Amino acid sequence: MHEAKQWNVSLDIDEHDGRTRAVARLHTRDSDSLVGVGSARLNPADADIPEIGDELAVARALAELHHKLLDCVADDLEHAGETAPQSP
Fold this sequence. Notes:
There is one protein chain. The protein is α+β, with helices and mostly antiparallel strands. The chain is 39% helix and 30% strand. The chain has one helix spanning 50-83; strands at residues 8-16, 19-27, 34-41. The chain has a 3-stranded antiparallel beta sheet. The chain is elongated, with a radius of gyration of 18 Å. The mean pLDDT is 88.
């Protein structure tokens, strides 16, 4: 059976005093959202290019989200082995 699924990732980015914070939220049909947070700060010696801070903070938030999702997979696989029959 073919079933189309849609998961969404929302990104919120906040900049304040040379620091950028990004929050990535994964929304699935089956669960509350998983959240990853990333930050970046402007080095005083660098040019102030806000897009670079946004990109770095978002990349870090998505990386944390990635790790949390993999942890969920590992937990689900561990618990699936407890209830599902084992194949030889």
